[in-house]
Amino acid sequence: MKTKIQYVAGKICICFMAWVGSAGVLTAQPFIHPGILHSKEDLARMKTAVALQQQPVYSGYLVFIKDSASQYTYKMQGPLKTVGRNPGVSAAYDNDANAAHQNAVMWCITGDHRYAQKAIEIVNAWAATLTAVTGRDAILMAGLGPFKMINAAELLRYTGAGWKAADIRKAEWHFKEVIYPVLKDYAPFANGNWDAAALKTCMAIGVFCNDRPVFEDALRYYTHGWGNGSIGNYIINTSGQIQESGRDQPHSQLGIGMLAECCAIAWNQGLDLYGYDNNRLLKGFEYVAGYNLGKDDLPFSEWLDRTGKYHHYRMSDKGRGQLRPLYEQVYAHYVGTKKLPAPGVAAVVEKIRPEGPGRPGADHPGYGTLYYAAAGEPADAKPAPPAGLFAQGFNKEVQLSWIAPGTGSGDITYMVKRSGLPAGPFKTIAENIRITRFSDKTVVPGHRYYYTVAAVGKKGRSSDAFIQPAVAGLPRGWLQEDIGPVAPGNTCFDGTRFNIEAFGAGPGKTGDGFHYTFFPVKGNAMLECRIDPQPGSQFSMIGLMLRKDLTEGAPFVSLFLYPGKTEHIEEPDWHTRFEARAKQGGGITTLAKGAGLTAPAVTFGRLTGSYWLRVQKHGNRIAAFVSYDGAQWREAGSSPADPGDSRFLGIAVASGMTNSTNVRIRQVRVNGQPLNVQQ
């Protein structure tokens, strides 16, 4: 079925902030261990089922033990100092990661210490040797194999395997300092399976390294991220259509399978990410399962993705019917634990059970029949604290949402607390909330607040959620406006960073289309900022602008970061332009054009690093400066006059496509001073 194009538009300004509060706050929510893909209860269930040869788990075990990666005699293929993908070498790492994970599972099931020793050998060797993950597809390289390696490490650390404390610390350092930097900004420039790979491994790193900010940031991206891999952008509608359904079926399964792995991690930490947005994940699985089982009457909507690069007009039959081993997990949860109907998923499970390895490479954990079949209902307990608390500030309210706990029975209600200081004291501002969202309308514009949420069930009250700050509206004196005939954008501020959603084609020959976040100026003025990595669109135009007024076609002087066109849509030529329009409705003059940006700001045509811009007005002279580090600046151009006696100075952002873009701007300084918000 063909429908009109549906665009993912946004009124949601993505306000993420990796908040680090007091030590007391950070230690208030300990992680559950082991707690990535396999919980203590999972391991006990597998061990019992294998010992008693209970079906279907035992059939999964028989397949599992035939894999060469499940043997303690496995011969390690690494380690290497550098691994990469497109170009690079990845097979040795992926194969060793499979073996580390599967030997760790074998240790937990059999108690044979030789399996533990093999897994320890592999994890230690790579943690001590690997120093870099490279290549155009480095995010996939860092998001797939390392996920298995971290799962192995989690099992070894928390099952009495005899792993030395010094080696555990080295592994923690390795995952945080070598793997995490590749993944921390996710992959909003790519198809959604890239985001999903980054998400699951960031969550795993958060758990293993007991790093709550890393874990919480990944949860917020899963629910509210600006890339194709957040749950609402990957499963694009309530029919369950996948962002990659028009690309091919293997990638659609890859992406949705990894989002399910995120849910498994969250579940083992007491969170019901599976149930988020009315079980949206299940809708996607039913859609993918149905089509790959031969169902031809599924609705399909023409779709332009979040990057603006991938436009699909019809369902792709490429790889149709090539079912991957990732359905048993969601069947066990939705049907076994939650007692929900999932006929498509059930049919796939019946068709491919027992599930085998998660290859190619290290794409999936695989072996779901062993890992997940016969999972029972969670024990009745006090609810876990909510997580993934998301706060979005407007002038007259702060909107909150969060992920519900997966533990606790009966009616769960929530209480919201707020403080003007990160260390408190916190005051309860709402109770008996029965949904996972709340709007605080008792705020003062320009003030920063700190929020937390607790769940209340019949077994008691949870501890408080990880604190999330928000600012009501923009800093004092700042305003925002859509310039030209564009869809409405939005800017929010989290106390540290502007988060801007914008549409439009940017400054034009006779008119403009962008979102402008600005303040009035009189006389001399200076504005500088840092552009964060990974905007939502690779067509984004991001800059600083002096402007006479807010009408379309007004005179201006600007310094923009532009994505110049190249032969390859995936690799734009990012460069700066210093431009001006001298009169109302006049043409635009390029006063200076910078050379293409290089590393660390740009790699493989992607804004993978930060870049700094500065515009300074002194008398009638306007000068522009750029920097790779915010310390060493280079003049990028100057103008001897101020067209139209500019009255406003601010940040201008355009998406360069029909969809919106999301851009994050931090380290904003006005006349050399950082922005000030009131507590």
From TrEMBL:
Fibronectin type-III domain span: 382-475
GO cellular component, one term: periplasmic space
Domain of life: Bacteria
Molecular functions per Gene Ontology: lyase activity
Keyword Lyase recorded: yes
InterPro entries in the cross-refs: Alginate_lyase_dom (IPR008397), Chondroitin_lyas (IPR008929), FN3_dom (IPR003961), FN3_sf (IPR036116), Ig-like_fold (IPR013783)
Stretch forming the signal peptide: 1-28
Gene3D superfamilies: 2.60.120.200, Chondroitin AC/alginate lyase, Immunoglobulins
Keyword terms, alphabetized: Lyase, Signal
Protein name: Alginate lyase
Species for this entry: Niabella drilacis (strain DSM 25811 / CCM 8410 / CCUG 62505 / LMG 26954 / E90)
